């Protein structure tokens, strides 16, 4: 608005100048013209000597006063044209103000978009930070899994190596009738024992593990059924099975099935 008032004041000043110029002092002479515009001339004192009419006036022996007269034509514009120019300038000013307001609105819209973009960027940065943290945690889990897999693979290879060296042998010990067992007495109890030595078909590289169970038995029905098996003196060459019964038990036959296997580390 200050710019608009400045232009209006400038236009009024120009109009005032032309009005003052048209009503000049008594020493201003109007020159008739056949044109629509009015021309005036006035005395104009200048210090140059190349004017059309110059006069000199001695002041003393060393100084003189030089007066030159020339004509200057001033073209006076019509007042309505000045008003029209002022109005045109006001219209242009209004257009500029309208464009300025529109640019301000556009600027506010751009500022809003910029704020939205900044908020989106902040959100993306936050999501990216969370994603990076998750990826790092998953990388740690993956590294742990890799180490566990390497350890498991090593164990599997060791088991495979042991399995490759494992050897198994099995068989049956026939203890026959308890009447053929050797009779012993301990604390008033009669025990009958038979020792059966088992030799492996070929020696083991390590002392094997031996276990077994009863395979078949034929016991007298008129007596209680009592029996016991023991495995001892195990070596890489074989072992000893102890067949045992006691009291009045009568066994017509009893078989013991065994299995020997290389121990797994």
From TrEMBL:
Keywords associated with the record: Coiled coil, Signal
Q: Which organism is it from?
A: Biomphalaria glabrata (Bloodfluke planorb)
**Where in the numbering of this chain does the H-type lectin domain appear?**
196-261
What the entry lists under Pfam families is as follows: H_lectin
The biological process GO terms on file are: cell adhesion
SUPFAM superfamilies to which the protein is assigned, alphabetical: Agglutinin HPA-like (SSF141086), Tropomyosin (SSF57997)
Signal sequence, start to end: 1-24
Q: Where are the transmembrane segments?
A: none
Where does this protein have coiled-coil stretches? Answer: 72-127
UniProt name for this protein: H-type lectin domain-containing protein
| Record InterPro entries | H-type_lectin_dom_sf, H-type_lectin_domain
Q: Which GO terms describe its molecular function?
A: carbohydrate binding
